[in-house]
Each structure stands twice: as C-alpha cells, then as structure tokens.
Design goal:
Blueprint lengths: L1 E4 L13 H9 L7 H11 L4 E4 L6 H13 L8 E4 L3 H15 L6 E4 L6 H9 L3 E4 L1 H9 L10 E4 L2 H6 L3 H8 L7 E6 L4 H10 L4 E4 L10 E7 L5 H9 L7 E4 L3 H13 L4 E4 L5 H13 L4 E4 L14 E4 L6 H8 L9 E7 L4 H11 L13 H6 L1
Parallel strand pairs: 1-8, 2-7, 2-8, 3-5, 3-6, 4-5, 6-7, 9-14, 10-12, 10-13, 11-12, 13-14
Length: 387
C-alpha cells in the first residue's frame, strides 16, 4: 500500500472537480478542503482505490462524495455507486450529503436502512437510482428479493469500516461484495486500523493508497478534557448544576445503559432543563425526532447510550459529558470526538465515581495523556470523605 500523510492543503478549485460540483461546494460556503479531502479527492478522481484513516468530523463524507459525483456526471443511468454504513443515523447523514451535492447534476440518491417502511425503498430501488447509501442488513434483504442490482457498480464505499466490523457485519459485507463486479473502484474509510480492517482492505481493495489524518487514539487538540470526581448518587445533581452555566449551549451526555439515559432526562426535566434521550429501545422515528430536536435547538441536551458515539455528524456541540465512564478507551475517544469538530473548540467532561477510578486511569494510559481533575465543592467524594 502506498501512503500519503498530511501534505500541503490546496483550495477546492485546485483539486480538479467539475465546474457543477465545484459550484455546489462554493455555494455551500466552502473554499479550503479539510486534510482528508485534499488528500483523497485527487486520488478518487484518478480512479485509485483509497483507504482513508480519519476520525468522524474531519470531512471524510465529502472526501468520497464529491469525486464520486464528479465521475457520475457522464454515463448510464443505473445504480453505479454503493455506500455501506454501520448505522441508520450515519446512513441518513451520508445520503443527505450526497443529495445536497448531487442536485446540480440531477442524480438520484436513496438511503436504505431498517426500522422504517420497506415498500418506499423497494419502489425507489426498482425505479433505478444512481447512488445507494445503505446499512448491510437491509440492503442484503433487498438484494435477496431482487429489488436491487449491484453487479455493475462502478464504486463501492465502506464507511466507518471498523464500526461495521465491531457490529458483526462482516458476513453481510462479504455476501454483498460477492455480487459486485470486481472491476470497480473501492474506497474504505475508518477511524482506526485494527487487524480486521487491514484484512478487509487487503481482500477488497486493489493497490490502495492510504491517506491518513492524525493517529489512532489521537484526541483532537481542540478539545479540553476534565474529570469530575463525584459519588454515583450525586452525578445527576452535578450534571444539572453544570448545565445551568451559560456556556453549556449544546450538550451531548453519554450514559452506559438505556434506563440510565431515561432517568437522567427525567431528572433534568424536573430541574427545568430541556433534554431528550436516544438509545436502542427507541423506535427509529423517535430517534430521528430526538436528533432533529437537538439539531434545531428545541432541546439543548441529548442523553444517549453509545449508539451515538459514532456516526453522528452534528455541528456545534459545545460539550460532551461522560455521565458514566466508558469501559473501553476507544469508546472514550469516539465519544469525545462529537465535540471540537472542524477546527471548533469543545469540552469533554467525565464524571468519575469511586468505582470508576481504574477505568479513568486505563483511558489515560491508552490515550497517553493525564486528564485534569476538577473538584466541585459539595460533590468531590474525596472532599466529602474528609468532611
């Protein structure tokens, strides 16, 4: 594999995109591409297979969407591109990005995922679309029923590949890719590079160029980290107190369990703080509604389980709060990656109960940084014990 890492950044106008695509980008107010876009777009335009290593929030969707749409401007009208994503939320976001940039070219895009009615997806696929963005399970269902044909795909994108493998989608991915022509362009994007992802890349990519932004487990320098020592039964009260500060504008709170998320929301509502929960027990419609309320500012606090740690592209999150310490260091990295995105600044706070001290220390060892402790009078269990 060839490797490219952090070269000088050109402007979008210098990347070689077709005028209609470039006009769409400029109309959106973008002039300078992010590092992953600057590296990947010229390679994709050349037809190379690319393996992109970058955290969510670095602009990787546009890194493959823009050059793919450039290549679709000429050619037959049929399903030519497939993007596989691990979650419904990411599927919708990628489809939204493609649709925004594809409008100028008159190209059709459809999102295919579970938890919503089947028939509209079937009708769209049978009518013919240029780009399909899908989760593996629902797409495989459509393929087995003959609703879609991917044999003549020109480009396959495996987005958030590490997350798809973590969620056990390897068998579905293999069954889907077996139906696609081998003479295609394949792009793989991943936040991390475990052996499973490398094996997947070697299996499906041909002489890929590796483009990399940052390092595995590297926390963005735009995020300020802090740990708040607090007894478990005082976490809700501390959370409400912090949320009353004026700078706590758009806050994503992570809990370990689904009932825990609901309890936190109920407590905040009793305190007069608008909040909504998102987790696996919610229907797809409820999850979409929660996201829309959070994005629109109707509520300023979204309380979620780790279903939201990857794949959510919500701009302007000022704070991420780990109400419960994540059990895995990589989960910490993914959680705090929801803030401090696109060169903005953000804060990542972690509430640490006495029985979570070891987990915090493990996170510090894995990430290679010591996280400052902040003692709040009346909440720090060390101070309370002394009293």
């Amino acid at each position: 594999m060839e490797s490219i890492e952090n070269p000088a950044t050109p402007t979008f106008a210098e990347l070689g995109l077709a005028a209609p695509i470039l006009a769409t980008v400029e109309a959106a107010g973008y002039d300078t591409p992010t590092p992953i876009q600057a590296q990947a777009i010229p390679l994709v335009l050349k037809g190379r297979d690319v393996m992109g290593l970058a955290q969510t929030g670095t602009g990787k969707t546009a890194a493959f969407a823009l050059p793919i749409l450039h290549r679709l401007l000429d050619g037959p009208r049929r399903t030519r591109v497939l993007v596989l994503t691990p979650t419904r939320e990411l599927c919708m976001q990628v489809e939204e990005n493609f649709r925004r940039y594809a409008a100028v070219a008159g190209l059709d895009v459809v999102a295919v995922f579970g938890g919503v009615p089947y028939e509209p997806q079937e009708a769209a696929l049978r009518a013919g679309v240029d780009v399909v963005v899908a989760t593996p399970g629902r797409l495989l269902d459509h393929l087995e029923k003959g609703n879609a044909d991917v044999e003549l795909l020109e480009a396959l994108v495996l987005d958030e590949a590490d997350r798809m493998l973590d969620m056990g989608f390897a068998p579905q991915i293999n069954r889907i890719v077996e139906q696609i022509c081998t003479y295609r362009q394949t792009l793989l994007f991943s936040a991390t590079m475990p052996p499973e992802v490398e094996a997947l890349a070697r299996k499906y990519l041909r002489r890929p160029v590796v483009v990399q932004v940052g390092r595995r487990n590297e926390n963005t320098s735009t995020v300020t980290h802090a740990v708040y020592p607090v007894p478990r039964d005082r976490k809700s009260s501390l959370l409400a107190e912090l949320l009353r500060k004026p700078e706590m504008d758009t806050v994503l709170v992570f809990t370990r369990t689904k009932p825990g998320a609901d309890r936190v929301v109920r407590h905040l509502e009793r305190e007069g703080i608008t909040a909504v929960a998102m987790h696996g027990d919610k229907t797809q419609a409820q999850r979409m509604d929660a996201l829309e309320q959070f994005r629109s500012g109707a509520v300023r606090v979204l309380v979620a389980t780790d279903i939201a740690q990857r794949g959510l592209d919500i701009s302007g999150i000022t704070h991420v709060i780990n109400y419960d310490v994540p059990e895995q260091a990589e989960d910490y990295v993914h959680r705090i990656g929801r803030t401090g995105r696109a060169a903005a600044t953000g804060d990542a706070y972690t509430f640490m109960a006495p029985d979570e001290i070891a987990m915090v220390r493990l996170i510090e060892r894995v990430t290679g940084q010591e996280i400052p402790r902040i003692s709040v009078p009346g909440y720090d269990f060390g101070t309370l014990a002394a009293d």
